[in-house]
Amino acid sequence: MSTTQRAYNSAARDANRSEDRDITPETEFRETPLPWGKLSVLLALRLSEPVNFSLILPFVYQMVKGFDVAESPKDIAFYASLLFTSFSLFQTIMVMHWGRLSDRIGRKPVIMIGLTGNLVSSVLFGTSKTFIAAISARAFNGLMAGNVVVAKAVIAEISDNTNRARMMAMIPLMWNLGLIAGSAVGGIFSEPVTQYPRWFGNMRIFAEYPYLLPCLIGSSVTLFGLIIGLFKFEETLVRKKKSSSVATLGESTPLVQNAAKQQEHTIWQLLSPTVMRVMGTNVIICLALSMVNQSYPIFAATDPSDGGLGFSSRKIGISLAIASVAVIYLQLVAYPRLERRYGALGCYRRGQLIMIPHFLLMPFLSMLATSVEYPVASGFSPVRETILWAILIVLLLVRVVGSVLMLTSINLLTVNMAPTKSDLGFMNGMQQLAMSGMRIFGPLLSGLIWSWSIKHTWPFPFNSHLLWNICALMMLLAQQVSSKIPDSVNVFGPGETETEDEIRSSD
């Protein structure tokens, strides 16, 4: 890299830092109005995937139990984890390809393909009568699940430095809103013949397929997204003609901009030390979250005598939905303000700290659930159940806060590290690859740990607390790694290139 180009890159980056980060109480913060026309369409498209992903959470324990593949109730966690793992495995295989494909053919075609696959796989899952059929449907769903990568690239393309944090916060917002809707739908509408015999008692299709109704409701959300996307979504990928000669550049064209446009980056050039640290913490966090998020329904459905809560599918769905309501305020109001004050990196680190008490305290709820399930004095049971629900909701809210801070921040940090806008698809694909990869091992690992810990009468901390304690240690490790990430990742990077001095200083 030449001295002149390095100087231009450094000057451009300093200008961006001055504009974006040096905001004091005396300086008025002026945010570019959000492009609600484009944004609302994108958010509608994004909603379908989390709805269909989460609606199985409340009933997955009962569904696997009905397949009669587990030798004992203590083995159900392992087989349930395979359903989650199959989705993540095939998403990991394809996610980078979806990102690169959207860089070549456009964002809209890839989004439409993903929505179609989501719709088909949800119906197939609802009509599954064997474990093999269910796991195949989940695998196909993962194969087609690449829209999250494309959505982040679209956000980066329609935003600027003043509103990017707020807009990027919309991605996990829709994910969590989808979790609310999906969890509620899965808990309320699963096994409708049993839950609502007056309305569905004579419908043979729901007696034969007890989990089809919530899947059909989820598919209707996807169908709505397909229609909206087909007629309302506008392509955001701008294809630029390559200049045949530097001499064609006008004097009014900034040198740093043209240098960024012309520079092509290989995979190894993109993997700077800073990128590796950010992606490393992303891997750790996603592994911990995937272990706990997929294990919570199993933990909640497990008998209190085995370290669980003894909840029904309906209670599991309600608990997930109630806690997730806070996401609306966190994403729309709290996170943009926190990001302006602490930066995306500061929010990222704080989210990791918040998760530690959640992990350490959750397994103690089983003791309270035991007193509710098997009360010494029956008169105290309703009071204890109220206390159990109050503490559970508080701890789930803590998890929501920590997840919002970490996942929203990692979205920002990822797009900030992209050298040019043409690399956004790859960078987001790499981030999603790391997340999907950990979602392969997370559920499988947590299923094995949970089954092993409740099968044996080991003392604390190797009993039913083991899974939660491991996740707490992983958050501590993420804290250590993230402390070495430089503050320069708080600045949006596309259009600029990383200087050699910054690469060396990040080592």
Automatic annotation (TrEMBL):
Q: What is this protein called?
A: Major facilitator superfamily (MFS) profile domain-containing protein
Establish whether keyword ATP-binding is in the entry: no
Which residue windows does the record flag with biased composition (Basic and acidic residues)?
14-27
Where mainly located?
membrane
Q: Record's superkingdom?
A: Eukaryota
- Organism, by scientific name, is Coemansia interrupta
Q: Which Pfam families match?
A: MFS_1 (PF07690)
CC annotations in GO:
membrane
Q: Does the keyword DNA repair apply?
A: no
Annotated region (Disordered) at 1-27
Residue ranges of the TM segments: 76-98, 110-126, 167-189, 209-231, 278-296, 316-335, 356-375, 387-413
